Every structure is written in C-alpha cells, then in structure tokens.
Amino acid sequence: MRIEVTAGDITTTQVDGIIVSLCEDSKRDGVSTAAVVEVDRLLGGAIGSLLDSNGIKGKPNEVTVLHTLGRLPSKIVAICGLGKQGEVTIDRVRDAVAEGCRALRRLGCVSVGTTLVGAGTVGLSQADCAHAIAEGAVLGLYTFTRYRAPEGGDVNRVTLVVREQAVVDELATAVDGGAVLAEATNLARDMVNEPGNYMTPSRMAEIAQDVAARCGLGVTVLDKDDMVSMGMGALLGVAQGSAEPPKFIRLDYDGGGADSPRTALIGKAITFDSGGISIKPSEGLAEMKDDMAGGAAVIAAMSAIARMKLTSNVTGLIPATENLPGGRAFRPGDVLKSLSGKTIEIISTDAEGRLLLADAISYAINEGMSPLIDVATLTGACRVALGTIYSGVFSNNDDVAARFLEASFRSGERMWRMPLADEYRELNKSQIADIKNTGNRYGGAITAALFVSEFAGSTPWLHADIAGTSNSTKDSGVVVKGATGVPVRTLFEFVRGG
Prior knowledge:
The protein has 498 residues and is an alpha/beta fold. The chain has helices at 34-42, 46-52, 90-106, 126-140, 168-193, 201-215, 224-230, 233-239, 293-307, 353-366, 380-386, 398-411, 444-456, 488-497; strands at 2-7, 17-22, 63-67, 76-81, 111-114, 157-162, 218-222, 247-254, 262-267, 269-273, 313-323, 335-337, 343-345, 372-376, 391-395, 415-417, 435-436, 461-465, 471-472, 482-483. The chain contains 14 helices and 20 strands. Strands 7, 8, 9, 10, 11, 14, 15, 16 and 18 form a 9-stranded mixed sheet that branches. A 6-stranded mixed sheet has the order 1-6-5-2-4-3, with helices on one face. A 3-stranded mixed sheet has the order 12-13-17. Helix 3 (90-106) crosses helix 4 (126-140) and helix 4 runs parallel beside helix 5.
C-alpha cells in the first residue's frame, strides 16, 4: 500500500472514500474542522443534522459512513470520532484512521483520502499527527490471507491531503517514519499468525537472514552443535524433545560509535509450545503457535531500527525451538546446566520460555551488552493479572524501566510495571540445584521474572511479559484480530530514545 502527502482540498480529491474527523463536544455551529464544515455544506447539512439528532456523537472509535450521492468526487465519507476536544491523543488519531480505513474498505474503496486528523487539537503537532495517520492506516488495514482467499479488495493508496504546500515535505517524512514502524509491526504479525508447521525455528532463521540482507544487518545463526560447544544447556534441554533443530539467531546493527554501549533485544521464540511432558490441556492448544511472538517482535524491531538509521548499537538475540513431548524430551525432575553455569531443577516442562531467556541473557552478558531487554509470552499469570490490554514490565533498573515505559507511551502500546520483590525469591529455591524453574501458582508472573533476573544479575535488565497482549480476539483501532505485533514499536522507541 502506498501512502502519500499532497496539498489540496479533501472535497475535490479524486479517491473512492475520504476520512474526516470531529470531536464529541462539536456543535452544529462549529463542526470541529474546516474540512468537516465544507463536507457538511456540500452534503446539504447532513453531518450537522446528524449531530443535532445524536446520530453522530464523535466518540472515540465511532465511525459514521455517508454516501455522497455524486456531490463530491469521492463516493463515501467516513466521519471518525476523536472524543472530547480536550482529551484527543495521538493514540486516538491512530485508532480513528484505522477504524475509518477499515470502514471504507468494507464498502469497496481501494483509494482513500484523509485530512490531517487531530492536527491543532490539544497542541498535537502536524508531524506527529501525520506519523500517527500512517501508522493507523497500515496497522488498521492489516490482514493475513496467506492460506485463504481474501474477502473483497484492499486499499492500495492512502492520500493525506493538507492545505499548505509548504508543509508537504515535512509531513511526507513523518508519514514515511510511521509507515516503517507499522510495516515492521505487520512483519511480526505475519510471523506470529503463521501456523507452527510453517514457522519453525529454521524458518525464523531464514526470515532473519532475509531481513538482514534487505536492511543491512549483520546476522549469525548458531545451530545445535554450536550451542552444545558453548554450553547452552537450558535451551538445548527444551529443544531435545523435538525433531525440529533449534536455532540461536543474532542480528547486529551498528549505528553508534565503536565505544558506544550495545543494547540487547532478546525475544523468546518457542515456535510451538505443547507444554512438553507437562502437556497443556487441548483447549486453546492451537494458539500455542504464538509462543514465538517475542522473537518475531525483536526481528521486526531490528528491521525498523536499521531502516530508520538510528544512532545506536543494537543486537537482537532470538533463541528458537519447539517444546514437544517425546522419547528424548526433558522431564520434570531433571537438572539442566545453563550457559551461565547455574544449574536448574525442572519442576514443569511448561515453564520453558524462561530457560531460553536464561541462556540468551548469559550470552548477551558474555558479549558485554547492556542494557538487556527481553520480550516473551512468558506466563498466563500475567494475563490473569493485567488482562489483554497491558503488558507486564519487570526491571532491576529504575532508569531503564522509566525509559521503557516512556517509549511504550509514545508508541501507544500499553505497559504496566510490576513488582520484582525479593520476598518471592524463595519460591524459586531448589533443594538439589541452584534454582528451580517455577514457583507455586500464586504470583506466577513475578516468580518467572525473578527466575530470569537471576541470570541478568546486576546488568541493567528489563523483562516485558506479553502473554496477554500478543494476540487479540477482535478489531479495535490499530489492533486487529489475531497477532498484534506488540511490542515492536516500543522497542524501536526505546532504542531511539536511548
């Protein structure tokens, strides 16, 4: 899909459908923006009449569609609500455009024009709004149709129409940036939506190599023999039940100076998680193809970081394997020796993701990387605690946590910091090894994070548990049904703000 910026008048733009916006507290004698006023005039006061009768309320995510009946070059107008004027945010701009684009697509529009939604409201800059409009369009129109016939056509062009020629170049740059982030997020969505028989560890490695070739990244893929020689016993323990070979993927981006620190982005990539010997119940088991969402997010974020040429040194680390039962599978009661040298008693083979993170974090520390940011669909407990809107954040460093939460605010991906309380550490104590891989059922997200923190030690580290947010059951704003691509944009913003 092409996104462009042009100077002109939205009411004379040659597209199938147009998007205009208004606020919840708009009145007929001041119908939000000049564009809405002019569209309303050309439609014989239809918008104002609907406002008067509460047919349009302007609430967030509300879309009202009007057919123009030949009064405008465009066939359809989508009027998108932004909520109250004093409460409009960049998030609402993204979501309004996403909802508007989907509404127009359902009515057969293949080209869409939009005003500069949100600009001038509560001090939102034109550039920020243009960036958000591009994100909203690309994210909101995402579909995954690789294994089924698409339903109807798709939007192939979105035109942002502004009044002044002087701002076109600046806004085009902002649009390009928004599109890059959204495209990266959609790459992660594509990977997570793939079935497990296609998205194997080897396929993830191939995608990483393709991304590296396109974006100018360094890439290294370690195979099982490499992991054996290095002593990655935790990762290999998880992998030994599957016929699919494990992969340890490294992507390098050198945008900073030779002496600059190197941030590590670490993504758990269990391409299918049966639970192993501690097998999961059959209900919901098909969803366990998404247990590689953290790894997908890291690969996608690295692509955006490279495309936008950020001035930082960053490495993406993706330990990838399946977790399956079998004659060679690791068992409850086993003891594994990790790359760090710490021994781990296995209580549940379904607490496997933290084992991958343990070896990946130790690898990053051995390579001198800091800070360490790991992303994982780690615990159902985090989903119970925070639901499906907020990801859980745990960190041993207040500065890193503050930066990450600020990055999540800028991206619109919601995060909530959770406690990393020492009082819970005793739940991970083992009688026969240095640590066991799960505590009891209470505080499971915390004890899982504490397990991972043992391998980070004093190195600045942050863990994002995306078990509740990696998938959605419905379309809502920029979030679409299926894989969400969280937290690709937050990782990008964290690196950019670093």
